[in-house]
Specification:
- The protein is α/β, with parallel strands linked by helices.
- It is about 25% helix and about 25% strand.
- It contains five helices and 13 strands.
- The model has no long low-confidence stretch (mean pLDDT about 95).
């Protein structure tokens, strides 16, 4: 299926989820991540602020802040993503796409210095391919970390498909977590 058609189908299905369905699935996904070795071994974790029925991550943000981990969120700039650390929700302001993001005064982090990234997506496949919104922000920012065991995709189980058209610049996930399973993608040779 072409990317644009798959994106439209998945976004429509995701929008159709009730608040309860989002909350229940999101809670299970967050629990799976918090129990993972990726999280246990991380001193710093990059997350996102969920919008448009994405998997919620507020529980992870709260737990990570309580446990003393560095919590880092993306900021969209004209040059791509910049990752900045927050110390509390008060460090957020409305960003470029009306998505809360860290204030400019927050400490910037190089992606190479962040232990684990939790990345939302519109769809993922069994090879770790990710379909986003089509802007390529995460692909550009994280391509150099591909295959290092630091990229974790979050999605509802219905967003996990057999195959997504892949281009060389698309970054592959090391793990994909849904409310029903934790998938370690099949490596593409």
């Amino acid at each position: 299926m072409p990317k644009h058609a798959l994106r439209a189908q998945m976004l429509a299905k995701r929008r159709s989820l009730s608040v309860d369905e989002q909350s229940i699935a999101g809670g299970l996904i967050q629990k799976r991540f918090l129990a993972s070795s990726e999280y246990a071994n991380a001193c710093s974790v990059a997350l996102y602020v969920a919008t448009h029925a994405e998997i919620p991550v507020a529980g992870i943000i709260a737990e990570a802040l309580l446990s003393g981990r560095a919590v880092i969120l993306p900021t969209v700039t004209s040059n791509g993503l910049v990752f900045r650390e927050i110390l509390s929700q008060a460090d957020l302001c409305q960003g470029r796409f009306r998505i809360p993001e860290p204030r400019v005064i927050c400490k910037s982090w190089s992606p190479a210095d962040i232990d684990v990234f939790v990345i939302p997506g519109v769809a993922f496949d069994h090879y770790g391919r990710r379909l986003g919104y089509g802007m390529g922000y995460y692909d550009k920012a994280l391509k150099m970390l591909e295959g290092m065991g630091r990229l974790v995709g979050f999605c509802y189980d219905f967003q996990l498909v057999d195959s997504i058209d892949h281009e060389p610049h698309d970054v592959l996930m090391d793990r994909v977590i849904t409310e029903q399973r934790v998938l370690t993608p099949v490596l593409i040779k």
